[in-house]
Structure formats: structure tokens, C-alpha cells
Amino acid sequence: MLNFTVGPVQSFDKVMELGSMQVPYFRTPEFSAVMKENETMLMQLAKAPEDARALFLTGSGTAAMEAAVIHTLSEKDRALIINGGSFGQRFVQLCRMHGIPYEELKLDMGKALREDQLWDYKGKGITCLIINVLETSTGVLYDMDLVSRFCRKNGWFLIADAVSSFLADAFDMKRLGVNVMITASQKAIACPPGISMIIADRRAIRRIKNSQASCMYLDLKHALEDGGRGQTPFTPAVGILLQMHERFRQIMQDGGAEQEIRRTADLAHDFRQRITGLPFEITSESLSNAVTPLRPVRGCAYRIFQALKEEYGIWICPNAGELKHTVFRVGHIGNLTYADHEVLSRALRDLYKRGMISF
Ligand SMILES: *Cc1c(COP(=O)(O)O)cnc(C)c1O
Questions:
Q1: How confident is the model at residue 248 (pLDDT cuts 50, 70, 90)?
Q2: CA neighbor of 221 nearest in space, from 237, 234, 205
Q3: pLDDT tens profile 19-71
Q4: E-strand spans in 210-327?
Q5: From residue 178, how far is each of 116, 144, 149, 209 by CA, in Å?
Q6: Which of 141, 195, 206, 291 could lock 185 by a disulfide, CB 3.0 to 4.6 Å apart?
Q7: Percent of the chain with pLDDT over 90
Q8: Ligand 1 mutation pick, 131, 135, 164, 180, max ligand atoms within 8 A of CB
Q9: What pLDDT sits at residue 284?
């Protein structure tokens, strides 16, 4: 199968080789050294401030979202959640579930965030802004410069879920003044799912240390303590951490985050060129390099997903809920090439000839 979803995505060879090996015992100085290097490399790739800390949790991206919300916010906060799709909605659910007061800025499907929408929340007691840098469900990349300026001016704490945009779109944690950055192993990091990460800046570390949250498995205070010596409170997904170590090292060797982002941008551009002339509309007004959301002018998005899967050996990414039949997404993250695009665009042209999609 050729995988154009947004995660899990196709891994690179060395990462896959590591996946076939025995998993080592981890309470050792050798594994601690790997973990300290993972922390250093992740912070470099995200351009985190020097006094930040990176934490590795065993769980999918949502584990880090939940851990961040419960340890850096409390009932004394008032969060503004940018909700433009299912990942924004997840933060709404988390705040609701954990008793964090919040306001919700709902965006219409595919729409970018505008400055005047943020102004509506000035003077409303907001203390924190929560945003998915890329709302993966709709393929909308938010203007983080705008968000950053606004948070700085108002002293708002800023939580940025960069799960799907990290290493696909430019991100500079320090320059943006992001206090908590979240990402996960299975998107552009292109490793198996199972590890999620939090980078906490000085302000976030202070909040974590003062947190009254009661939680055992995702206890970030405990994770900060043990992480200081390259360890985790409980058995982590050791194999994935070793695979991530290899992947991070490769990215650093090949020219760092900038080069990886350029590679992804080139892939996205190539794909978008190839589908001009086919009956698709791009549904995001602010595109990321990671994904292209497409609406067939006529034709069922879900049937296209099924046909590509069953008849062509290709996975694209279907949408859930309301968008199931109208929109599908093509990912540009992971180990993909222009030759893979040739295969996909040939299949799409074939579906067009067969009348499954039309103008
Ligand atoms: C994939 C993703 C997550 C994490 O989802 P999991 O299924 O828990 O890994 C969180 N936020 C965004 C924006 C994502 O794309």
C-alpha cells in the first residue's frame, strides 16, 4: 500500500530496520544518553528556548494534549480555544472534562483565523490561548505570528498543538513565545504511533511544578524529575524512542528542520501542480505543507477513498463526521517521493475517466 494519510505515515528505511530489532532494557546509562539526545535534538528542531524542557510520554498525541491541559491550566484560568475542526474540538472536550473555564472561537470549515476575531476576546479575562497550529481535519494552518503577537500583548499563556505541522511547516517556539508545544511520533516525525511530546518553556515548567493535578500515568512533575536524568517514570515505548533518535539524527545531518520543511513543501507543491485540471477544489484558505484537503466537484469523497484503497493499493485520508462524503485529504509527510505522486495522480485521472469524479 502507498500511504498518503496524515498518520501513521511511511517511515524511512533505517527507522524500519530498527523496528525489526530486539527492544533493549532501558534503565541503563546508555538509554538515558539516547533520551537526553532526543530531548536536545527535539528542542533544536523546534527552536525551543535553552531553558525549556522536552518530555516524552508514551501515548498518542492526545496524551500530551491532556497532560498539558491538566498540568499547565487550572480552574483559575480562562482559556480561549481556537476551534476550527475535530482537533480544536478535542481541546474543548478536555477543558470541559477537567473543569478548565474556557471560551471557544469557532471557525467555519476551511477558514483562516483573523485578527478581528481575537479582538472580541480582549478584556474578557482570558489567561491562555490554545491552538492547533495545523487543524489537520480541515487542513487549515493558522497564522502563528498573529496569535503570538496577540498573546504577548495580552500576557496570555500559549499552548500550541503542533502535532501535524512540526517538521512540515516552519515553527520557532522561542520567537513565537509558545509556552507549551505538543507533537507526536507518527506525523512528520514518521515513526510508529506511541510517543507524544511536550516542550515546556520556563513559564510552563513553573506551572507544572505548582500544579495540583492528580494523575499518575501522565504526571508531568514526575516526568520532569525523571527526565532530568534521561529516564521516564514508567516503561516507555523504548523501540519508538530509538527510532525517533535515528530519525532526528538523520534530519539534523541532512540540514535540520529547514531542509525537512523544504522537502515537504516541494512535495506539496508537486502534488498540487499535478491535480490542476482535475475536478477538485482545495477547501482550505490557509494551506499547510503537510496536507492538501480536496473536495470533488462532483463525486463522493468516501467512495474515492474506498476505490483507491481497494483497487489501486493507495491510502488517502478520509474525513470523519460531516465532511465524510465531501472532503478527503492527501498527506505530504513521511517517506514519499515524486514517483509516488505519479502513481496517485494516474489513479485519480483513472477515476475521472471512469466517471467517479467529474465537473
Ligand atoms: C494527529 C493529531 C493529534 C493527535 O492525535 P492522536 O490520534 O492522539 O495521535 C493532535 N492534534 C493534531 C492537530 C493532530 O493532527
A1: very high
A2: 205
A3: 999 999 999 999 999 999 999 999 999 999 999 999 999 999 999 999 999 99
A4: 280-282, 291-296, 314-315, 317-318
A5: 21, 10, 11, 18
A6: 195
A7: 99
A8: 164
A9: 98
Do 324 and 318 meet the contact criterion of CB atoms below 8 Å apart?
yes
Cell of 210: 505548582
SS3 51: coil
Residue with the smallest CA separation from ligand 1 atom 3 is 61
Ligand 1 centroid vs 291 CA: distance in angstroms?
14
Residue 87 C-alpha to ligand 1 middle, in angstroms? 7
**Probe target for ligand 1 pocket from 92, 136, 197, 284, with the most ligand atoms within 8 Å of CB:** 136
b/e 319-333 (16+ beta carbons within 10 angstroms → b): beeebeebbbbbbbb
Please write the tens of the pLDDT for every residue from 99-112. Answer: 999 999 999 999 99
Distance CA 123, CA 142 (A): 23
Give the strand pairing for 128-132 and 140-141.
Answer: unpaired
pLDDT at 2: 98
Q: Where are the alpha helices (DSSP H) in 281-324?
A: 301-312
Rounded-to-5 percentages of helix, strand, coil across the chain: 40, 20, 40
Confidence of residue 333 (pLDDT cuts 50, 70, 90): very high
- As given in the structure block, the three cell numbers for residue 80 are 480561549
